[in-house]
Amino acid sequence: MLLLAFHIVAIGALILxxxxxxxxxxxxxxxxxxxxxxxxxxxxx
Length: 45
What we know:
Elements: H1 2-40
């Protein structure tokens, strides 16, 4: 039973880490697109 609980916690932590990494990559992409759009004075596509 303890092993099952450990696996559930480990999988949850893995999902959390992957989610945080994906969120940060998305934020960087959004910042990059905004910067490019501001430089070119064009709306988003």
